[in-house]
Design brief:
Elements: H1 2-55
Length: 56
């Protein structure tokens, strides 16, 4: 009986820990990708504005 209880507790804790780590890592990865894309967009917009002022 105690083995069953310890197995259930272990499964529950490992599932919770995995979910927590997965959520944390996915949030960090999303934030990193969003920051990189935002930097690229601002660089592109800055380059296109600079190019249009040189042409004009």
């Amino acid at each position: 009986m105690s083995d069953l209880l310890s197995d259930l507790l272990f499964d529950l804790l490992s599932d919770l820990l995995f979910d927590l780590l997965f959520d944390l890592l996915s949030d960090l990865l999303f934030d990193l990708l969003f920051d990189l894309l935002s930097d690229r967009v601002s660089e592109y917009q800055g380059a296109s504005c600079h190019a249009t002022t040189e042409i004009a």
